[in-house]
Amino acid sequence: MKQTIWNTIEHHADALKEIALFIGEHPELGHEEVLACGKLTDKLRQHGFRVETGILGLDTAFIAMYESDKPGPTVAFLCEYDALPGLGHACGHHLICTMGIGAAIGLKSAIDTTGGTIRVYGTPAEETKGAKVPMAEAGLFDDVDLALMAHPFHRYEQSGSSLAMDALQFEYYGKSAHAAANPQDGVNALDAVLLLFNSLNALRQQLESHTRIHGVITDGGKAPNIIPDYACAQFYVRSANRPYTDETVRKVIRCAEGAALQTGCTLKTSNYEYSYDELRTNEPLSEAFTANLHELGIAADRVFSGQDHGSLDLGNVSRRCPAIHPFVQVVDEPFMLHTPEFRDHAMMNRALDGMILGAKALAGTAYDAVATPGMLERIRLAFERTNKPGQ
């Protein structure tokens, strides 16, 4: 049956590659992925999936579903398809989404035999306001038995961890004045931002090593001879888990408040993007994916242990249902994500072939979970262990 799944994906490989190339050639920013959403949902409808768009009022979000007549577990494949500003698909999301629908199409060839439901979640804007966050909050994954996606990379990696993250914006309001004629009448908002950066530089020494704080000044004034009455800075605050991220955020906010007190500015604090939780990999599901890579011909010494590669909104999903996020090799040089080199090579035949292999591994993993006696129970128990109350 698994070979039937893989043969189905191979049969549709050319059409899947055309979709990936189209999306790669037409990059769209988060929540603007109209063309990508249309291509993906059209293909899923052609294969008998019932598609609902505009999920939670998000124009480019969708859920596609195929339900077997036989009862069984619910398998979810997650698709991302937003591009990066100025770089296009330098994170390979055109491959991620096509892997997802390819896996769903492959698994559909077996689901009527095993029983169960296949869902494909179209999740816009992973790079910024990731749609998985409100989807998870709305309970859209609560009845899912396993959620799978794979990310293109320069090597194979098991599903690992990610950093929890908050996106903080600090706006300082002061009073403008002529910087030469009467600076004593001004309240310098830019000084508050600079003090904030210096405070955070001092704070870093007292933080655990897995913590990251990085930011930019988005508005620092309009002219050097005017005391800035407004300045703004944005930061990402990350750590290995949500509780420590929350603790660090409280410290960062105190630094921001101190800068306001020192300068006499008024401070407004807000979150300019969604907060991402850390990824909690489901180990039995991850082991099944690695086993499928081996079945597909990838030698054991080519699959590395999972690494932290930043933050992702799948972390929020992994708090709601068993989930994995492994990495699949699609380029042969160590090009890093979010670079022009990775973007360009992710459009080549080598990358498209890697995408098809990734789709097969995802579908094979889902089939093993559904068809292997006792495996769903192991997956569920592992999920409960990693998501105990208070964690």
Automatic annotation (TrEMBL):
GO terms for molecular function: dipeptidase activity; para-aminobenzoyl-glutamate hydrolase activity. Belongs to the peptidase M20A family. This is Peptidase M20 domain-containing protein 2. Residues 171-251 form the Peptidase M20 dimerisation domain. GO terms for biological process: folic acid catabolic process. CDD domains: M20_Acy1L2. InterPro entries: Amidohydrolase, Bact_exopeptidase_dim_dom, Peptidase_M20, Peptidase_M20/M20A_hydrolases, Peptidase_M20_dimer, Xaa-Arg_dipeptidase. Gene3D superfamilies: 3.30.70.360, Zn peptidases. Signal peptide: none annotated. GO terms for cellular component: cytoplasm. PANTHER family: PEPTIDASE M20, XAA-ARG DIPEPTIDASE. SUPFAM superfamilies: Bacterial exopeptidase dimerisation domain, Zn-dependent exopeptidases. It holds the Pfam family M20_dimer.
